[in-house]
Amino acid sequence: MLKVYEATCTAPINIAVIKYWGKRDTKLNLPTNSSLSVTLSQDDLHTKTTCRAAPELKADKLWLNGKEEIIAQNKRLTNVINEMRAQRKKLEENDNSLPKIADYKLHICSANNFPTAAGLASSAAGFACLTFSLATLYQLKLDNVELSTIARTGSGSACRSLQGGYVAWEMGEKEDGSDSHAIQVASREHWPDMQAIILVVNDAKKKTSSTLGMQHTVATSPLIQHRIKHVVPKAMEDMKTAIQNKDFDSFAEITMRDSNSFHAVCADTFPPIYYMNDISRAVVNAVHDYNAAKAAMGSAQKYTVAYTFDAGPNAVLYVQKKDADNVLGVISRIFPAAEDKNIYSGFNFNDQEIDEVLAKMNTPIYPQMNAFKRIIATKVGDGPRVLANEFNDEVSLLNANGEPKELL
Amino acid sequence: MLKVYEATCTAPINIAVIKYWGKRDTKLNLPTNSSLSVTLSQDDLHTKTTCRAAPELKADKLWLNGKEEIIAQNKRLTNVINEMRAQRKKLEENDNSLPKIADYKLHICSANNFPTAAGLASSAAGFACLTFSLATLYQLKLDNVELSTIARTGSGSACRSLQGGYVAWEMGEKEDGSDSHAIQVASREHWPDMQAIILVVNDAKKKTSSTLGMQHTVATSPLIQHRIKHVVPKAMEDMKTAIQNKDFDSFAEITMRDSNSFHAVCADTFPPIYYMNDISRAVVNAVHDYNAAKAAMGSAQKYTVAYTFDAGPNAVLYVQKKDADNVLGVISRIFPAAEDKNIYSGFNFNDQEIDEVLAKMNTPIYPQMNAFKRIIATKVGDGPRVLANEFNDEVSLLNANGEPKELL
Questions:
Q1: Which residues of A touch B223 (CB under 8 A)?
Q2: Residue B89 and residue B203: Cα distance in Å, rounded?
Q3: What's the complex ipTM?
Q4: What DSSP element (H or E) covers B229?
Q5: Most buried in the list A28, A268, A292, B253, measured by CB within 10 Å?
Q6: CATH number of the CATH domain containing B268
């Protein structure tokens, strides 16, 4: 068998606390405003990608969660793959000692460790992982900021998944997008006890894709111009300061206000776009009620927990480690699960502490059982990881013939 | 029995197509933006008020829907009653021939012909009727514009219920509010075939009062400043033109956009305020789908029906006479009522015409039965009416002793 070049990597998802909504350039995915996110732990949620370059491969092929995607029909994939190959080509031209693998065809296999049913935007992790694993395969000398610029052309928010901790996507000004990239505001180690609780809402109806949705909002909402020009720039500065100071109260208020502002401009779109449903709104009310109750109980914090909602009904709660169990415990009482599908069974709750907070709250028990179909409790995480920079059957998603292994 | 002075009047409700949300002066009810509404027919919905002034009355008393209200404890009531009495006093001082009835105590009895359960803002009709009936009792020489300025001090939107047809509340600039009053944009006769269908949504949970809600929005929403300064002023001008031209397409689009803008700034409030629920949003989507279907069927109109939502989940649909039955018929299929509580039974639908539109629509049948508890179909109406300007037992709400008659 001829020499096989291969890399297998994982990349994390990220959940924005200042939302990306609106493109000024749809080809290059250049945004109308900067955004900021928290990278979540790959121990819980990640995309894994194997990239192989080998002389015996006949054509570029790519599989997503076991299903083949026709690369040529997917502009976002070709953007990233062509650019990475061009970067390798440049290296090889400047250094004859390097093997000429840029000319080899590629087999790429990518899979999420969480079901799409979880309703999490997987394209960010997916394109971050594709970019990072190709950079590893090709041994490119690009830093995370340069990589983020390339990942951005695949999926805007992917640029924020190339680093761990707290990451800002600076919108930039240049027409070619070369200054529209992600920068780490603070590492996971700077503020390690940030946790995220994802409440996956039971919701059948299909939603407007965020790509289409943000175009409609920019085209029809008068209010988004105010958000772009005045609301977000201040929120970005305030959020960076809050993270530097590990100021959870400020982090929480800016996060909740920005989520509200984002869904407000969606509602101002014509026709309006609604991503949150009655369950989502009940979570919002419960969070404000919970925070008020804790403050009334003498908590030093104004906010114990913050909500944020992406382009869907699922709630993501940010909370500090010390408060996570109590917050989820109270949620489990307000949004009860049926015996046979108890999504809360994996957690250890302190019933007495839960009762104390509930006694101070006014939120009624949500009338519908099983409002959530899944709970994911995770924490702030690190950036993409290299599992192998050569063929390694233990971690590779491709078998010896370059076909995807059976994924369960 | 001594001479009794009495007047009995009715006043209509109005539903804004450009919403009033935000006060620049809470004492005088001076708004942060102008608004515009359609006055609905008193034949269907009205407040009726009897005002009596007589020497044998011992104290000012007022009954609302059979329940006594302590006037002294209600700033909004005292504002209006004191001002009207002062106006009468002035007349009497300038003309000795007039009976001195300003010094007589007042008994006032007011009742709506629709249940509060209907979830319609009754304070507008209530304060309009109180002002108008006192003006009739006291035989004041005030025009509707002057009366609207007084009614406004009781309830802001009441000033728009003092005239029929299409009414603008110009916000004014003066600190004393003397230029913040309602003006008729067009009479009912100018555009008589405007109809309104009120879908009263089944909804248990109590909502934030609009008085408190609008204060929170002004205090905490960054986006409302853009609505106030830029969105509403243009919408007011465009809406006046649309009404002058009887241009339903423009009327409909401005109405729907303003409702969306209003609920967007509510969602941008911190904590957010949600008046619409999943049923309300399903109506919005159904209306856009219906309009698209009719356009696809070759309708000359871009919009056949428009929605608007006040500070609650109920939908108000504006539609021209020719389209009203088909619109409600389609609604009755998408939001089915159970046999035993068929709120649609009073209407005659053309099933074939309904099927033709439904065949072009993508909106699924709403999963929950009885999404609405009541349907009110009405039309544009006239201004307040004088039923009697002296004691008339046939119409009076007070008996000979000045106590409320048994209602119903």
A1: 223, 226-227, 231, 261, 264-265, 268
A2: 47
A3: 0.93
A4: none
A5: A268
A6: 3.30.70.890
